[in-house]
Amino acid sequence: MKYITIQDTHLSVSPICLGCANLGVKNTDSEAFDLLDGFVAGGGNFLDTARVYSNWVPGELNRSERIIGDWLISRGNREQIILATKGAHPILGSVDSRLSTAHIAVDLFGSLETLRVETIDLYYLHRDEPSRPVAEIMETLNAHQKAGLIRYYACSNWQPSRIIAAQGYARAKGFTGFVANQMRWSLAGMNVGPPEDQTMCAMDLPTHRMHSESGLAAIPFGSQAGGYFTKLAADLVSAKKSGFHNDINVALLPVLQEAASILDTTVTAVALGWLLAQPFVTIPIIGSRTIPQLEDSLRASEITLPEDLVVRLNKAVDGC
After folding, report:
1. Which parts of 44-197 fold into alpha helices (H)?
2. For labelling alongside 269, which of 21, 91, 104, 167 has CA 20 to 30 A away?
3. pLDDT tens digit string along 49-65?
C-alpha cells in the first residue's frame, strides 16, 4: 500500500482511514481488536475516532477511544499508528456549542487520558461555532500544538468561508493552520440534499473548489454512503430504504459494475476509487464492521480508475 503525506505535515498515512465510531457498539471488544489488526495487516495505519463516539449507547462513555487505547497498549504499536480524534462536539441531546478555550481543553485532555497517549497526531474540531471569532479558536489550537499535546489540527463540519477565514488568520500569525477537513462525502452523497443535522456539512461545489485551490486534504466520512451501491446491486427493496436512493444514483450502478468488471475489483472499491482520484489529497474514512467489509474497502487502494471513467462519474455528480 502506497502511503500519502498530508500537505504541510509529516503525517504519512494510508490512503484509506478506518473509522472507529462503532467500535464496541456493533461488535465486541475482541471483534474490534480483530478489525484493527486486520486493518494494519492490510497496510492501514490511519485511525479516526472522536471523544463523543459511542456515547449515544447507554453505558460506558467514550468507548471507541478506550478500545483504541487498550489495543495500542496490547499491540505496542503506537509509533506505527497515525491517530486522529475529535473534540468540541455538543453534548448529545444539546445544541450548545463547545468551542470555547475551556471546552476544547476538557475534550482534548479527556481524549489523551482515555486513549492513554501523550500526543494526538491529528486533532479535529468536530463542529464549528460561527459566532466565535476564528482568532480565538486558532490561538487555542496553536497553544496545544506548541505544548506538544497535538501534532497537527484540523476541522470537521465547517463551511468553506469559515475555513478560509481561519487559514488566513493562521498564515498571518505563522501558525500551521488546519491541515485537513472532514465532511460527509461519497459518490452517491453528491446527488442528495444536505444532512438533516444542520451542524454537519457535506461536500458541495464551493467546498470542492476551496480544496482544489488550496490543496487542503479532504478526509470524508460516510464515504460508502452506508454501502448503498452494494445494497442496490443485491436487494432493491433494501436500497429503496436508503436516504441515497434516487434515479441518478440508480443509473450509476451499471457504470460502477462495468468498471469493477474491467478492473477485477468490486463496486465498493470503484466508488472509493473515485474519491481517491480527486485533484487534491482525499483519504476516505471507511466504516467497516466485519473483516470481509474491511477487505472489500481496502481494495480501493490497489486500483487506479481510468481518466475517462473519472470524467464520466464527475459529470454525474454535477461537475466535481
Report:
1. 63-75, 101-115, 134-146, 160-173
2. 21
3. 999 998 888 888 999 99
In the block, cell 466565535 appears at: 132
Point out which residues pair with 217 in neighbouring strands: 180
Separation between Cα atoms, residue 271 and residue 256, nearest integer Å: 7
Domain ranges (residues) in the chain:
4-227+268-305
How distant is the alpha carbon of residue 254 from its chain centre? 27
Confidence of residue 320 (pLDDT cuts 50, 70, 90): low
How far, CA to CA in Å, does 74 sit from each of 17, 22, 24, 30, 69? Answer: 21, 20, 16, 12, 9
Q: At what angle do helices 29-41 and 291-298 cross, to 10 degrees?
A: 20
Instruction: Provide the whole-model pTM.
Output: 0.96
Q: Residue 186 burial by CB count (10 A; 0-12/13-18/19+): exposed, middle or buried?
A: buried
CB-based contacts of 82, cutoff 8 Å, min separation 6: 11, 12, 13, 45, 46, 47, 121, 122
First to last CA, the chain: 26
Identify the pLDDT of residue 285: 98
Fold held by 4-227+268-305: TIM Barrel (3.20.20)
DSSP structure string for 272-289: HHHHHTSSS-B-PEE---
The 10s digit of each residue's pLDDT in 178-219 is 999 999 999 999 889 889 888 999 999 999 999 999 999 999
The C-alpha cell 464515504 sits at 223
